[in-house]
Amino acid sequence: MSDSGIGMLLGHASAQMLWLWFIGAFVLGGVLVYGVMKAGHLGRSERAQLDRNTEARQREEDPYKRPT
After folding, report:
1. What is the separation, in whole angstroms, between the first and last Cα of the chain?
2. N or C: which end of the chain has fewer CB within 10 A?
3. Cα(18)–Cα(2) distance, rounded to whole angstroms?
4. How many CA atoms lie within 13 A of 44 on its CB side?
5. Could you tell me the residue ranges of all domains in the chain?
6. DSSP string covering the chain, please?
7. 65 with 59: CB under 8 angstroms?
8. Mind listing the pLDDT tens digit for each residue in 11-40?
């Protein structure tokens, strides 16, 4: 049995490790994309609550700030 391609250049064990690296990078990339997409979206009620909390906190820190 003869090796071909990357296996011939790196050896059998190294070729397997290379494929594991590619699979791991693909899975990690997918997890990161999923996390970024989920973290960036708030529902309408969540956004409204965040805005109210931000305005209340700004009034606490600077009572002379005009509400917008």
Report:
1. 76
2. N
3. 19
4. 0
5. 6-61
6. ----THHHHH-HHHHHHHHHHHHHHHHHHHHHHHHHHHHT---HHHHHHHHHHHHHHHHHH-TTSPP-
7. yes
8. 667 878 888 999 999 999 999 999 988 887
